Amino acid sequence: MSGSVSYHAGLAAEDSVARHYSRSGHRVVERRWRGKGGEIDVIAQFGGDTIFIEVKKSDSHAAAALRVSDRQVRRLFDCAGEYMGGLPDGMLSSVRFDVALVDAAGRIEIIENALAA
């Protein structure tokens, strides 16, 4: 897949995941939020929780899951910490980290709290 095609496929996957969260009652508050250390694909709120969502697209859900690297997880945690600094409860905010896997057919699999310690 060329760089441009891959980029646009990633954007389409993020759009699809954001719609999925919205339809299930979440409020999508940010898309492609940029912090000093990188980007968070989607940020949603549900009840009192803020959910940081990493979106991965590949031919299959299994292949997409393999694309979540340790480096990306560290970047996501760093960016989330920066974002949390602006929340009313700051670093004491209730958060979770989901991974949204999108396959070639556009099917979405959400792994809630995928990055829990």
Q: How would a crystallographer describe the biggest sheet?
A: 5 strands, mixed
What is the N-to-C succession of helices and strands? HEEEHHEE
First-residue to last-residue Cα separation: 34 Å
Classify the beta-strand content into a percent band.
25-35%
Structural class: alpha+beta
Radius of gyration based on Cα positions = 14 Å
Strand order of the largest sheet: 1-2-3-4-5
Helix content: 25-40%
CATH topology category name: Trna Endonuclease, Chain: A, domain 1
Q: Can you tell me about this structure?
A:
Helix content is 35%, strand content 34%. It has 117 residues and is α+β, with helices and mostly antiparallel strands. It has one domain (3-111): Trna Endonuclease, Chain: A, domain 1. The chain has a 5-stranded mixed β-sheet with strand order 1-2-3-4-5. The radius of gyration is 14 Å and the shape is globular. It holds the Pfam family UPF0102. Belongs to the UPF0102 family. GO terms for molecular function: endonuclease activity; nucleic acid binding. Keywords: Endonuclease, Hydrolase, Nuclease. It comes from Jannaschia helgolandensis.
